[in-house]
Amino acid sequence: MNLTAALRATRSRSTYLLALRPNAKSWRPWLAPLAALLIWEACAHLPGVDPRFLPSLEAVAARAWEGFVHDDYLGHLLASLGRDLAGFFLGGLAGVATGLALGFSPLLARVVGPTLMTYRQISLFAWIPLVSMWFGGGEAGKIAFIAMAAFQPTLVNSWRGVAEIPKSYRELSDVLLLGRLGFVALIALPCALPQIFTGLHSALICSWAATVGAELLFNLAPGLGGQMNEGQQMFLMDKLLLCILLLGSVGVVFNLLARAAERRCLRWRTL
Amino acid sequence: MIDSLAPSATNALEISRVSKRFLVAGRPSPVLGGIDLRVRDGEFVSIVGASGCGKSTLLRLILGLDTDYDGDIRIDGAQVAGPGLDRAIVFQDHRLLPWLNVRSNIAVALRHSALGKGEKAGRVDELVKLVGLERFAEAWPAQLSGGMAQRVAIARALANRPRFLLLDEPLGALDALTRLRLQNELLRIVRQGGTTAILVTHDVDEAIYLGDRVVVMRPDPGRIAAVIAVSGAESHDRSAPEFIRLRDRILALLGVVRSEADASAGHGLAPVA
């Protein structure tokens, strides 16, 4: 009974997250960004607007053409993506593992839980000086920082997913004599899976945000953040805006991929 | 059906002086006060009573989910120490696992069965057919109606051919038509397997229709007010006068005033204009 209610609640939550379903009226979510681009374009052509501060869309497109064809923007984009995914996998794996351990072991949850919740209160950026001292400002430091960003949401969601398994399911497991292993495999993990996915999904977004942060604040290296630093120092506003558009586009693609994976793995839920 | 009853006049399940307390707001509050009940092999016992009379608690104790009580619950003379495959339950909420299809939901119960892989598959097929869901064997629980889901739950409970089938208001959440249909089906399934069934219900008609005996429970603390035998003649015609008389008697025992005097008064309850 209360499970179906819970499922309905999660379903309605996920529908508002992104209405980018192929079967829904899929053009609607694109209206707002399209309008923003139009307003930008209109403003850029207003008399008295300095194109050095607000370049037009054409200027940004020209920069993109030049960058991807004659310069190595693709390389920078791939460098950022590689870093992001490395951090996401390391942090996500650690987060899911720790969350499951906490969910299954009340003792561990009592001993370590409060500390981990306090850790969440500390801004991620507060760790930058420390991480760069421990791991260096190079690749290792950046990936460690991104992993920390992915760790938090996966930890909390996996933990909650297991901890919130309805009591009625535990009772069912007892009645069917499933045993501890059977309970974990047949009930606990599938029951927690939607919540684990929610964690991984937000970890994907958090780690992408952290990737840019790391690239802006740690040592200069190939990547979008580095290009933004360069754009700022050389006063290339078109380059800065291009980088922001690229960051957003990657985010949208991540979102779509995550939702597709979720829908595939949780088919029983979306019926 | 007759020959499964006749030779085994022995008590399969004996509940003796069972009392149980819960802590409510830090204070012990009795839910069951001295329950005595004997159930014979192959018998269908209905338990009726208002909410909070401890009916479901009693089933939990028989299942062995809770062993913290006073008194004895014995099966063939041996104290119940925990859950076992000889006892299965159908809950009011079907409690199917939404991530498993119908077949797998039934097969879950066979996890510790001694059957081989092929035999398990055969048993599941058999059960799917028994509850008439052949066309839905691969369906997800979310695709089933309430009645179909409850049929799957019944099939799951029968998977290990349990000696005792405990039914905790299994039809309580269903619409009236589905409920009537499933009552017949339940009766057929239980008779066919020779299973001993204990049904907890709010519905007096259902208790009489299905039960060989009806146990009437009263609350504060939960205790047995009466045990009424239902003979075959009364039980299968819901509009027979005997059936209605039995129902009224049980309703009176439950404290719902509907004695013969009221019935003959006819419109005694009609609002005064």
TrEMBL record, chain A:
The main location is: membrane
Cellular component annotations (GO), alphabetically ordered: plasma membrane
Localization terms from the record: Cell membrane
What is the protein's membrane topology class?
A: Multi-pass membrane protein
Q: Which residues form the ABC transmembrane type-1 domain?
A: 95-264
CDD domains for the chain: TM_PBP2
User: Which of UniProt's keywords are assigned here?
Assistant: Cell membrane, Membrane, Transmembrane, Transmembrane helix, Transport
InterPro entries assigned to the protein according to its UniProt record, in alphabetical order = MetI-like, MetI-like_sf
The protein's name in its UniProt record = Sulfonate transport system permease protein
Q: Which organism is it from?
A: Rhodoblastus acidophilus (Rhodopseudomonas acidophila)
From TrEMBL, chain B:
Species annotation: Rhodoblastus acidophilus (Rhodopseudomonas acidophila)
> Family assignment?
Belongs to the ABC transporter superfamily.
For molecular function, the Gene Ontology terms on record are: ATP binding; ATP hydrolysis activity
| Top-rank taxon, per record | Bacteria
The answer to keyword Nucleotide-binding applying to this record is yes
- Domain ABC transporter intervals: 13-244
This one is known as: Sulfonate transport system ATP-binding protein
Q: What's in the keyword line of the UniProt record? A: ATP-binding, Nucleotide-binding, Transport
Q: Does the keyword Zinc apply?
A: no
